[in-house]
Amino acid sequence: MKVAIIGGGPAGLYAAILLKKQRPSADVAVYERNRADDTFGFGVVFSDATLDNFEKHDLPSYRRITEEFAYWDDIAVHFRGTVHRVGGNGFCGCSRRKLLLILQERARELGVALQFEVDIGDESRFADADLILIADGINSRFREKYVDHFQPEVDVRSNKFAWMGSTRPLDAFTFIFQETEWGPFIAHAYQYEAGHSTWIFETDPETFERAGLTGLDEAQSAARMADIFGWFLNGHKLLTNRSMWRNFPMIRSKRWVKDNMVLLGDAKASAHFSIGSGTKLAMEDAIALAEAMERAPSIEAALQIYENGRREEVEKTQHAADVSLVWFEHVDRFWNFDPVQFAFGVMTRSKAITYDNLKLRAPDFVAEVDKSFARQVRSSGFDVDTDRPMVPLFQPFRLREMKLANRAVMSPMCMYSAREGVPTDFHLVHYGSRAIGGAGLIFTEMTCVSRDARITPGCAGLWNDEQEAAWRRIVDFVHANSAAKICLQLGHAGRKGATRLMWDGMDRPLEQGGWEVFSASPLPYFPDSQVPRELDRAGMRAVRDAFVAAAERGERCGFDMLELHCAHGYLLASFISPLTNTRTDEYGGALENRLRFPLEVFEALRAVWPLHKPMSVRISATDWADGGITGDDAVAVARAFAEAGVDLVDVSTGQTVRDAQPVYGRMFQTPFSDQVRNEARVATMCVGNITTADQANTILAAGRADLVALGRPHLVDPFFTMKAAAWYGANDAFCPPQYLPGKDQIFRNSVRDRQDLEELRIKAKPKTRAELKAEATKPLAAE
């Protein structure tokens, strides 16, 4: 077997080592365009988990790597004159040059042929090779040569960064957020060997321009950074090595394999430096390929196993990197935060670390986070304990005169179980049980303002007396038996109306019994959907009046809050999105015009809804489609509604067009809530694959939302919030007297259960290499 590897970086070398170990008789050769000891950049960083993987797959190279590493447990966040150190992280750094030399030495031991200063531009040189590995880096010429096949997507990010080094010693992975006369600069720094540390400097393009960095050479740039961060460098120099300012390219390739060629490392996909995973991904690519080669009956099968099996893990890491880099690109959103809350945001930015696991790692730090959050609550007028505060989820919140006992919300979820718009006993049990279960606020499903406003025949409505009486019964039950507040969500289906029940085919048109549908423009949702009638001015007035009439009925029912549904491609949302609004009149074109009718409806509702009661609006903060609404648009939309009197923006996304391509994941819509809250300066509620109280605490403590809505967790567990209250010791959680014995028991049990789980997690967690090294170097106790 003959294997040719183009690129002598960590991916290529480690793949050569593993494949040669696996097949000692194979002819494995690495071709590198640079010299053997050339390297660009300074250090690389790995987690303990990554080192565990290296130990498993090649012990000799693992041992040599770990002998050279600098270890640390802490992350230090410097911000506005404060330093917050967070332990228990388990990181280690190594010189990139040293890593390459170790891998080269190990490859030679195994009989791998290493050829340097050989520039390969055409794979035909390896016509006799059974396998060709393309590991030629982020600027891969082979990926570009076969661009139509590999189909890479390159997202060049906005921030400027430069990679430098220093002789400044560091005992933690260090983030420095530095305010300057030109704007914010960020330093990501860590020690990789005695007397040497890596420094990555980052800033937004506007600050870069204002600071006069355009056109400076390496030495001049280093001098400027030394001036800005001199107070921390403490006389140590900054070192350069091709340290030019550039923009980071996020690369994703649709295909990784072509014939017997396969992409590895940055050649196939890149991950932003802010999560330190570039070299990790490259070497783990090599591991995945070697494992596939060992299992598969042929090279062709092995390459498919590699691509199919490896892609999910790579994309998960890239998603975490995307979320992290966006946080750094928009750090100005958080610049006015309390420093401890800011540091918590740094730690949890990629969603890989959450409130609970951070509390296990750094309990004192999280205790300060809780106190900071409680001080903010106290400053808003609540008499809460700031010395021994409750977790963020169980801190109160106010919207106008409505006070919520906690920040857990049951999300609006259509039940499709009404009869001619009338809520039934199912709805009474559904809403009543969730209210008793402890949520601070529960939302009705989208309640339709007229018969032709329904999504399906099973949708609830509020356009007649029978419906009003049914809703009043539900509201009265909630108020009489719980501490929950209840919000009425009003909406109109628009072009997504006259469709089947969810379980019969979501958004699919009714085969019979349908009704005429309306939209901003005559564009059907599916090609075979009913073509909606473009709403004219008379139709707009009729719709507005229907909303007003429903709101007046809602007030008579006793609802505590009112929400206007302007999301998910329904009627009002169809005006806002340019994908569904192609009008040429005053209600089409620019965003200001597209917002005109939704704002008219909102203002009419605000005029009849009692001033002491709050109102919210649900928006789709992105259409997840080219040419549609973006996060920046969502900020403009939120500001417009805030000026009209909205108290809360319910931030959802998508469902506007059928060919949208959402990027799912844990808490996947939270970044949009974050952007709206911290740029539009309006309270937000986030929603979207939030499944645990831990995640809710993470979001709230980081200042990414003010309320957290959970949908599916509430579907299967009406007492989700009560259980969370017991887990976190929120003893003041309301419980009806009939259920108090159950509350007492779960609160007692949860103290023990939580303690047992935390002890188990602590025992199960292996010591970090920094801890082991510290123990090994302790002086022996005197006998």
TrEMBL record:
InterPro entries in the record: Aldolase_TIM (IPR013785), FAD-bd (IPR002938), FAD/NAD-bd_sf (IPR036188), OxRdtase_FMN_N (IPR001155), YqjM-like (IPR044152)
UniProt domain NADH:flavin oxidoreductase/NADH oxidase N-terminal: residue ranges: 393-725
* UniProt domain FAD-binding: residue ranges: 2-314
CDD domains assigned: OYE_YqiM_FMN
The protein's matches in PANTHER family, at most eight in alphabetical order, are given as: BLR3436 PROTEIN, NADPH DEHYDROGENASE C23G7.10C-RELATED
Could you identify this protein by its name?
Bifunctional salicylyl-CoA 5-hydroxylase/oxidoreductase
Recorded source organism is: Bradyrhizobium vignae
